[in-house]
What does this fold into?
Amino acid sequence: MSLVPSELSSKLSIAVSAADFAPAPHQAQRERIVRPSLSYWQDVWQRLCKNRRALSSLYIVIALLVFTLVGPWLWTQAPALQDLDAISQGPSWSSSSALVVEDPGTWPGVQGALRPREEADGQTLGATASLAVAGLPSTQYVRLYWEAVNGAQHYLIYRNDHAPESNQDLGLPLGATLTPDTLSFEDRLQLRPQTYWYSVIASDGFEEAALSTTAAITLQRAITASQARERGLDDTLGAAVALPAHPFGTDYLGRDLLARVMEGARVSLFIGIVAPLLFVSLGIIYGGIAGYFGGNLDILMMRVVDFVIALPFLLFMILFRIGFGIGPGESGIIPMLLALVLLSWPDTARLIRGQILQIRGEAYVQAARVLGAHPLYLIFRHLVPNTLGPILVTLTFAIPMAIFTEAFLSFIGMGVSPPTSSWGSLSNEGIRTMLSSPHELLFPAFFISLTVLAFNLLGDGLRDALDSRLRSRE
Amino acid sequence: MAMLRYLLKRLGVGLFTIWFIATATFTVMHLVPGNPLANERGTNATIRANLERQYGLDKPVFEQYLIYMSNMLHGDFGIAFSEENRSVNDIIREHFPVSATLGVLSLCFATVGGVLWGALAALYRNRLPDALIMFLVILGISVPSFVFAAFSQLFILKLNQWSGRSILPVAGWEGVSSMLMPALVLGLSTMAYMTRLMRSSMLDVANTDYLRTARAKGLSPTRIFFRHQLRNAILPVITVLGPAIAIITTGGFVVESVFAIPGLGRYFVQAVAQLDYTVIMGTTVFFGAFLVLMVIAVDILYGFIDPRIRLGAV
Amino acid sequence: MNSTQYVLEVDNLAVEFDTYGGVVQAVRDVSFKLRKGKTLAIVGESGCGKSVTVQSLMGLIPMPPGRITRGSARLGGDELLHIAPAALNAIRGKRIGMIFQDPMSALNPTMSIGAQIAETLVVHRGMTASAARTEVLELLHLTQIPEPEQRLNQYPFECSGGMLQRAMIAMSIACKPEVLIADEPTTALDVTIQAQILLLLKQLQQSHGLSIILITHDLGVVAHMAHDVAVMYAGQVVESAPVDDLFYRPAHPYTLGLRAALPGNDPQKQRLQIIPGSPPDLFAPPPACAFADRCPHTMRLCRSAAPATYTRPPPPASQASTNSAHEARCWLHHPQAPSSPVRSSAAT
It folds into this structure.
């Protein structure tokens, strides 16, 4: 039988020799394993490392832990130290210097003779002839004094942050002198190192004068001698001392926000990590027992799970807080931890039970059982390694949930109680001054978001790494 | 018929669950030794004794429980501590509709937004719109609702200042305009979750055999998208409506507080601050029962949409 | 041979997929012709590219990872590849129908069976819903589905696999297509149902003059159904022949191996024969013959040059004018090659 090459192949004519038709030496099977064999967790780890988002989240988590644990050694400002002269300061890296001034309350003030109203002046009160500052105007106090006005019964003092354009634009009413012969005023109300326009206006007891006297006064940052002593600084009057910088600014009591956020991180991350560890463990034990023994016990145990899951979570977190009753001086961390554990375990229990039931049904477990494997062998060789992945993922997702819960409860004042601070309670305090100084809310909120974000992305990455491993095994 | 039996069974379990919630509430609230009036300040012994009698607190705990349960069976949650002569039922009747309106509105935002953004992200998979939407989703999941609430208020304030008139009210509860921002803020995290779910669900459906069949039938992409892909992809979104309602209900506490909305959530937070026991217990049980019924309602809704459930295949 | 005899002609089709591991050359230079009113079976083991071949004709391969790099396909003279989506949609479902392996997952679970079949009629033939309904009922009758009236409003989960495959067939022939592609239509079904479905396809072919492409890995099905056969291996057609020629005179060692691997009726034969080794990695297909590593007759040439395609003259007894050509892509047919089973006229 003869064969003719088809049109197609005849075009690609190849020069062949007889040797080409000799039998080829038998080659070893081409089948060989190209890639190195990896253990399950090596493979998962490699997949995780390839996921850029998950990997950077892991770095963020590590950075957060370092921030929380090592931070307080590097940033030594006491989180509880109040500085009423530096209330709600914006974030700044530059440390400021301040002058040491004498303690307030030592100024006797200026008294003057009571001057009767001169008939010639008619109905109107005049403006004071001069308005001056005694001593150095500082953020501790501004000591104003002025010349008496004929016929004035008392004087009203105003402060503004811009030059007033009229008497209606004098700014913040600081107060009034009580007697006609008091010709001075000490302003200590939330002073900042800036220029203020102080105005004094005389009053005859019924109406204010038509004219006011305004002086622009620039304040210098200062601390009092006793404050300097408290902080271990040089307390000689007039000395310039360096005040620490507040990179995150200060809160409504002048406390350093960076130190507070670090302190709050300890509480938030403690609850956020310990509570999931506890309730996931509880869930594993509970679900493991239900799944392993099965039968009526399983049905009963799972009914309980159904009930606990039906409880409205946050409401019961609050109820537990009330139920445990937080006494004075207690932080409220332990009750919150307990409540979280008591309410959050059922999800893990359900998951683990399902996993165990599924794995128990797998052919390889059945085979091991038929071969007479000991139950302990089954548990540690098959059940534990195969449930470890889902457990890890659950744990990673439980952490942001716990942090969120803590923040939520502390935010509505149902979490940790002052003076203990957490990110949630810092946010709660921050929201009150949100309009004037948003940084007090921004920083704790940023840390909550960053932590939750990092753990969520890490969980996503972990789940994908475990999932694809499972998929490729199919 | 199968549907009716299923419904009755669900309702029976639901009632049992509500009983459990009520019992758990009672138990937790009576964990502390002593009674709720012990820390009332400014009351002398006689007044306290009178109050205890009025609230039945002088009786043994078990008897209190029976009274509490039988009252609850009659739908009576008792009298508020902090407001004389005001029943908890009255309070719920007055404040719950506000919370419900807010909740329904934000659930609509969340569902419509979630389905829309999720479908869009799936449609533009791995391209710019997808990346943008998923970035916002991550933001929505990671940022607590009170931060959104606070900054949206700040935003409204600046907006009003900039425009020189009141475009949206900063707080309060009057008219539709005051509901928009709180509802949006409240629904934001749920919307984020739903977007994510919808996106992955859309992609799952895109890989199914029946979508390949639809393409092989020569249907237009629009028809495939609406009649085959979207319809099937929405099903998982409906299953999470139950949890979503729970999240939105409790999330309402914060949003109502920040926006000063006179809802039941805000009232609850105030009652907790004042340790108003009857209000706390009544509201908890009410919310719990509401959520249980909502989950059942969502299941039934799902049954009507998915023929496999409706016809009793599962 | 008259070219109008062919309803579908595919020339030098090549399809690639981008994957994480690299580019997979799933289909490499595939050509075949489908005769009018006949059945062409495409046979091969899993992963040989048979499904990808037909899915790329239908524009069903996902097209970021997938790519048609070469070739053309003409349906009665109209090009199928690289055409506008709208033009493709006018052909899919109307001029080419397709049924799939698993009818359970190939039907939309949330639409009634009737509605899914009617959709084709509404889209391609512009029917009204009620007209489509009567037509669907007729189609269901045609596919001999039990109680067709009842099936109309039922959902896929309410029916068995066999019923659903009948419904799929009704859907695919609704617009009286010129070509029906059946991608392993019986693999997911019970053996008894398989026979019924194949019989139905055969009857429909006779009554409607359907031209069928049947994808399968089952040589038994091929023997029952096919008129022509194309054997695929590692993304290439290694042998194509009229069905009798293929079984009686296999011209490629792979076909020979496949045939030997069939369980026979011989009680003496205890063990099934196997083809040693596994198909090559399509990430880096061998430059010469893809089967060389598994072939019992490998020559030096097989490892150095891609085999040419040889046409075997028809046996004297056959009706040569109507049958397709018998072609094989193997160096053993080179005139200088030593004699081997694939060259003897009656292989054992």
